[in-house]
Design brief:
Layout: H1 6-26, H2 30-55, H3 61-91, H4 96-101
Helix pairs in contact: 1-2, 2-3
Length: about 100
């Protein structure tokens, strides 16, 4: 990261965040929504690591937060996939609008 300017890294992080937001709000498939949420969490991880590197190079707080978010994202993905599988078994679709129509 010594040769890459902070602006470029933050631009990539912002691009990932907004791609994730776009995917979260425009997609109807639950798996693509889950992937969009993972993009958002990864952009936050990039921000933590970059700001830790450039503001506090002697400390590892940003890296620990990033590892914590990766752990939470893995647990969230496991629970979300279990919910998606259960929804597919009951409704034969993972489309969000179809699931709202067939509530009970």
């Amino acid at each position: 990261m010594n040769g890459i300017p902070v602006n470029n890294i933050l631009f990539v992080s912002i691009a990932l965040f907004f791609i994730g937001m776009y995917g979260l709000f425009t997609r109807r498939n639950m798996i693509t929504m889950l992937m969009s949420l993972e993009l958002i969490l990864n952009s936050v991880n990039i921000n933590f690591v970059v700001f830790n590197k450039y503001l506090y190079p002697d400390k590892l707080d940003g890296l620990f937060f990033a590892i914590f978010i990766i752990t939470i994202a893995a647990a969230e993905a496991a629970v979300a996939i279990a919910i998606i599988i259960n929804l597919y078994r009951s409704h034969r679709s993972i489309d969000v609008e179809t699931a709202e129509e067939m509530k009970y």
